[in-house]
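Question: does this match?
>
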Amino acid sequence: MGRYLIKQCVGLALLAGALFVSAGTLRWPMGWGYIGLCAASMALTGILLARHSPDLVQERAGVRAGTKGYDVPLALAMAYAPMLMGVAAGLQVRFGTTVDTAWGWWAAVAVLALGSTAWTLWAMLSNPFFAPVVRIQSERGHSVAADGPYRYVRHPGYLGAVLFALATPALLGSTWAAALLALLLPAYVLRTALEDRVLRAELPGYAGYAWDVRYRLVPGVW
């Protein structure tokens, strides 16, 4: 648990640094609001996982043997997408071109972001094999997760990540972050497709599950 907490705290500190160093100021209310939202999401996830799925906390503490090599850069792209968008938003603040966002609108988008966190957390609690990277966890008796949000899409964790990423430019009031997100979104789609292929080929029972749950990422679309 300690390693997991350190990892989360370091990630939050790096995000704060990316935001405020690039902005060149600490006088950025939307930046602080975003940091607070991320901190709340991390705290909620950590507390509930530690209570209900401590084995998963250990699994998510680092990269383990059997990780698919192709997945590491894609996992990093997804993990650091908020940070990269934070840099873009901070630079936009520095150059004085940030879009003003009404606090009512900001609060509505924050609810969406928190909802995406709750969705992802539901997926984690429904799947004891919700690793941060793609690998077949044979030593843990890896089996197909088909309950909770997995009844609707095969990769609900990625859907939650996409929704949070979509909320980020609005929460930071940044068109530059939105432009960067457009470049990052293909990585989410590619990772979903590649993981689905691995699971079909290597995880017993997954092909049958994929027949029952037809959509990978977006219900009714793909």
About this structure: The mean pLDDT is 89. Residues 175-202 form the longest helix (28 residues). The chain has one domain: 2-212.
